[in-house]
Amino acid sequence: MSTISAELATAGMMAPQRLAASNGLLAWIRARSEAYGKWRQRRATARALYALDDHLLRDIGLDRSEVMSLAHSLEADVTRRKRA
């Protein structure tokens, strides 16, 4: 067997392993991208709520200390709705 055909045979045997590794990498990148998007959405929600004055926050039933908690719970609600 020539060197080239041996290399091609070896490359063919490695293809499933490479494919599995690349799928794992793509899944990791996708998961990080989704996590980053969720983080940005939480920050945008919190930023908008923090921009309100205390009187407006009280009108909607919130205290300033509850803003981040609300941003996290809103994200959890959206995630549950997407799964349903």
Short description:
The protein is an all-alpha fold and 84 residues long.
| Counted beta strands | 0
Oligomer: single chain
Instruction: Specify Rg, calculated over alpha carbons.
Output: 24 Å
Parts with pLDDT < 50 across at least 5 consecutive residues? none
- What's the overall geometry? elongated
For the termini, the CA-CA separation is 56 Å
Domain count: the total is 1
The biggest beta sheet reads: none
Strand content: under 5%
Question: Which features would summarize this protein structure in a list?
Answer:
mainly alpha, 3 helices, 85% helix
Description:
With 84 residues, the chain is mainly α. It has one domain. The protein has three helices and no strands. The protein has helices spanning 3-50, 54-59, 67-83. α1 crosses α3. It is elongated, with a radius of gyration of 24 Å.
